[in-house]
Amino acid sequence: MAPLTSPKSIKIRKMRIRDLPQVIAIQETITRTPIGPQKKSFLREHIQKENSLDLVALEKNRVLGYIISEVLTNSFGLDQGGWIENFGIHPRYMGQGIGRTLAAHLFAAYKQKGILEIYTSVRWDSVDLLSFFKSIGFDRSDFINLYKKVE
To answer: Alpha-carbon distance 36 to 41, whole Å?
Structure first.
């Protein structure tokens, strides 16, 4: 784990298009899978959406982590809610509070917009990610994820 120079050296800001190569590199490092052109296009478009709340954690202009989120309106019975679509911290910087800092900024941004319910979906076997989300206050919701493979 690479130590941070100081927790105060971390800056959180809205994600920009120029951050995408670093965000994609983090995602590829975590998943050990190349990110294809469709996903890259999705990320580029998502950043530019009016209802997106995409944040990066930076140290000296280097992206250490990110959170991709958006406001959902009239979705599955909710008037409005936040939805975390993707989240990642570079493995070298995990365990240093960067994820918590990103989450705190995201929660504050949602609260400022009057949105007090935030949702996400995590694979049942992603123990580390489940543990992280539980540690920042997430719990099971009234929703159940359903799946169907179209043949």
So the answer is: 9
Reported as a single tens digit per residue, the pLDDT across 26-61 is 999 999 999 999 999 999 999 999 899 999 999 999
CATH value of 10-135 in 3.40.190.10, 2.60.40.10, 3.90.1150.30, 3.40.630.30: 3.40.630.30
Q: Which of 39-43, 67-71, 88-92 has the lowest mean pLDDT?
A: 39-43
Q: Which residues make beta-bridge pairs with 13?
A: 56
Residues 59, 62, 66, CA angle at the centre, nearest 5°?
90
- Model-level pTM? 0.87
Strands 11-14, 55-59: pairing kind? antiparallel
Domain boundaries, given as residue ranges, for the chain: 10-135
Going by pLDDT thresholds of 50, 70 and 90, the confidence category of residue 20 is very high
Go through the chain and tell me how many residues it has. Answer: 151
Residues 6 or more apart whose CB falls under 8 angstroms from that of 72 comprise 51, 78, 80, 81, 82, 83
**Partners of 14 in beta bridges:** 55
